[in-house]
Amino acid sequence: MAYGNQGTLEDKAPWVYPVSILIFGFLCIIFSFGDIENSKYLQIFSAYTRIIVLGLMYIGTFYYLGTSGTHTAKAWDWNEQKNSLATVFGNTVFVFIYHHSIPGIMYPVRPQQAVGKMFLTANIVASILLFAEGFLAYLAFSSLDNPCSTTDGSQVTYPCQVNELFNENFQDIPFIGQVCQFYPMLNVSAVPILTITLRNNFMQVVPVKRWIRDWGCCKFLLDDHKRSVKGIWSIIFTIPVIIIVMFERDPQVMISYTGGICGPFILFLIPVTLTWYGRKKLGDYNKENFNRSPYQ
Fold first, then answer.
1. Which pTM was predicted?
2. Is residue 239 part of a domain?
3. Which entry of 69, 114, 120, 174 is 20 to 30 Å from 149 by CA?
4. Got the DSSP string for the chain?
């Protein structure tokens, strides 16, 4: 943001990266104290900000289309697309775990009968907006090969090729570029939900409380109804991640593998298996059952 080139400041001040990671980790941990509903106002702020940034990306893309014209590449290249499949599954798992919690945190859905219509409308609108964003990126950047950042401090020529973090394509546009660079910081609102979900699931699945009682050590961790203790558990789960990203500068590689492998299981195979065995155990699924899902 300061020099208009992603790598320049890091060359001048190598401490920027670890300090930034520590600040980001600190903020994430702070919001991980308590339960998911405690982050309501953070989620509301994040939701509005995401919409604003998306609008600025539209404006930035139209700006480049107006000043530099279209730069379209071959519409479909399987050799390129197949390399992104693992990333698609990884990001899908992230979005699924994170965003499914947001509506109930921000505002209760009333009346309950409107849930189906709400999900349908939200998915249609989101699909149109994201398709439009991707199509505009295809028109403006897809055939460009000059990178959006350099490591030797040389000047970048804009517009540039579609970056893995799309917000970096707009670095040279005043104000719009700076706001778009802030976009990854909005994950401060996502990480607490993931951390709290992991913490709660871990406490349910792993008999860690029994182990603590048997060991007779750190018994204060058993009082997980207290926000302070919940926060300590969040710190325990977060510290290994912070350590990893301190030494691994491209954690997306790990996300691609873990998400790509776990994604089909988490989103498809495990739910289908549980549903099939559950229905088999219940016998006639059409009988009166208070646990029956309203979604057929």
1. 0.72
2. no
3. 69
4. --SSSTTHHHHH-TTHHHHHHHHHHHHHHHTTSS-GGGGHHHHHHHHHHHHHHHHHHHHHHHHHHHHH------S--HHHHGGGHHHHHHHHHHHHHHHTTHHHHHS--SSGGGHHHHHHHHHHHHHHHHHHHHHHHHHHHTT--S-S--SS-PPPPSS-PPPSSGGGGGTTSTTHHHHHHTGGGGHHHHHHHHHHHHHHHHHHHS-HHHHHHHHT--GGGG-TTSHHHHHHHHHHHHHHHHHHHHH-S-THHHHHHHHHHHHHIIIIIHHHHHHHHHHHHHS-TTS--TT--S--
- CA gap 171, 107 in Å, rounded: 35
CA distance 296 to 286: 11
Average pLDDT of the residues in 157-167: 87
Percentage of the chain lying above the pLDDT 70 cut: 86
Residue 110 forms part of a structural domain: yes
Residue 287 falls inside a structural domain: no
Q: Read off the pLDDT band of 153 (50, 70, 90).
A: low
Alpha-carbon distance of 253 to 86, in angstroms, equals 10
Is the per-residue pLDDT at 294 higher than 60? yes
Cβ atoms of 8 and 171 within 8 Å: the answer is no
User: Does residue 40 form part of some domain?
Assistant: yes
251 CA to centre of own chain: 13
Provide the residue range defining the domain that includes 40: 8-188
Number of domains composing the chain = 1
Residue-wise pLDDT for 21-74, tens only, equals 889 889 888 888 888 878 888 888 888 898 899 999 999 999 999 999 999 988
Contact (Cβ atoms closer than 8 angstroms) between residue 260 and residue 85: yes
Residue 263 to residue 269: CA distance in whole angstroms: 9
